[in-house]
Amino acid sequence: MVSSSVSEFLSKYFVCNYFLLMTVDVLLVWCGLAVIAKFELIILLSAIIISLNKLRNQTTRMDLFIIFFSISIAIASLSNIYPQAFWFEGVRYQLFSIIFFFVGESSTSKDWDFFDKSIIPVLVVCFIGLILYITSPSWYVDFKLSGFTDNEGGRFLEMTRLSAFWTYPYWVSYGSGIIYFYLLFKSYKEGRITTKIAFALIFLAVIMVLAQQRAPIAFVALITLALLVNSLFNGQKRSFSTYVLFLLLILVCCISIVFSFLDQERLIFMLSKFESLIEGGNASFLKERTNIFSDFYSKKITFWGDGIGRYGHEAYYSGKMAITDQQYLKIMYETGYFGIICYSIFILLVVIRGIRNFKDNLFELGIIFFYLMAMTGANCLSVTGQHCIVFWFCCGRIFNKSCLTYKCTSCYSLQKD
């Protein structure tokens, strides 16, 4: 069996460099070197080794529960008759991602190394993406258009969204939301926002606005407001509220400046989209999302479901019935009542455990809340590009005793970033 030093090595150089290595992967694909773009696989193999080492040293009841329900779903799905490629996709991207729960539980994940190492890659990707978005060179427009198979309206919608090296903006917007919250959270813990962090927060907020995805924008707005209100009533954090209010004013100016560089057609389309979001509200959004998959309303939900991956993106590209943007609905129909019960129990236990040490688990609980909110309009536990591993990683950190000890005794300074 592997030693702890091997786990430390794999965690430090592969898992903690997730955002960097995933960016390298997509750049290799861009350069026509898809055959060697295997960092995603290397990260997964590293996570498996770290998980096995962790489970060998200590296996909790929560670990056994996760292993039981994951294997049960995979095996039960085989009893359904549907393409094996669909099953493989579901197991590979939805069930195997759960392995990162054990990585989060591991002693290799007790510190903030994963998130500290994610800051620069995300900022660099967003900066390059912003340049490509504003200048829109012809070769980049051709690349974006080559990834669309839907109608003209759908293509135009995606062309107005900032997505950097990806066809769709999920990688950029979700990554920006995660790093924005991380920087804001650690600044809140420190009681002040440095100039460097202030620029990063404003920049990431602009990127999320240009990516035009509701969940990240709503999340950062809510979490910023929550920390602002809390700091106003907390004498020790009052200076933090001053920084935040000042940042909000600068943010409005920055967004106005960026908008001035956009062509009129794109700007009108973006503004109409935000107007519909504000006027329609969450109820309208949920109704719209639910109606997309109205064909499933007549389908019966079984105890074991129709099979993991049956309604995923592989099914969509094969012209079959698919649920591409509603994780809750996908879990319901693919894994049935068994999956609903198991996922609900798991999330409930994680939240209860996190609330017990709310102040120290604030960041992890915030990320979990973000994904639970995003699951109403995206398959963010089934798609790598939506950073599903971060959700499971944060769940594991809540159950990581050495992580809790580290957070209770360490300083939250960001001076090294």
UniProtKB/TrEMBL annotation:
<keyword id="KW-0472">Membrane</keyword>
<feature type="transmembrane region" description="Helical">
    <location>
        <begin position="217"/>
        <end position="233"/>
    </location>
</feature>
<keyword id="KW-1133">Transmembrane helix</keyword>
<dbReference type="InterPro" id="IPR051533">
    <property type="entry name" value="WaaL-like"/>
</dbReference>
<dbReference type="Pfam" id="PF04932">
    <property type="entry name" value="Wzy_C"/>
</dbReference>
<feature type="transmembrane region" description="Helical">
    <location>
        <begin position="27"/>
        <end position="52"/>
    </location>
</feature>
<keyword id="KW-0812">Transmembrane</keyword>
<feature type="transmembrane region" description="Helical">
    <location>
        <begin position="367"/>
        <end position="393"/>
    </location>
</feature>
<keyword id="KW-0436">Ligase</keyword>
<feature type="transmembrane region" description="Helical">
    <location>
        <begin position="165"/>
        <end position="184"/>
    </location>
</feature>
<feature type="transmembrane region" description="Helical">
    <location>
        <begin position="119"/>
        <end position="140"/>
    </location>
</feature>
<feature type="domain" description="O-antigen ligase-related">
    <location>
        <begin position="199"/>
        <end position="343"/>
    </location>
</feature>
<dbReference type="InterPro" id="IPR007016">
    <property type="entry name" value="O-antigen_ligase-rel_domated"/>
</dbReference>
<feature type="transmembrane region" description="Helical">
    <location>
        <begin position="240"/>
        <end position="262"/>
    </location>
</feature>
<feature type="transmembrane region" description="Helical">
    <location>
        <begin position="193"/>
        <end position="211"/>
    </location>
</feature>
<protein>
    <submittedName>
        <fullName>O-antigen ligase family protein</fullName>
    </submittedName>
</protein>
<feature type="transmembrane region" description="Helical">
    <location>
        <begin position="336"/>
        <end position="355"/>
    </location>
</feature>
<feature type="transmembrane region" description="Helical">
    <location>
        <begin position="64"/>
        <end position="85"/>
    </location>
</feature>
<dbReference type="GO" id="GO:0016874">
    <property type="term" value="F:ligase activity"/>
</dbReference>
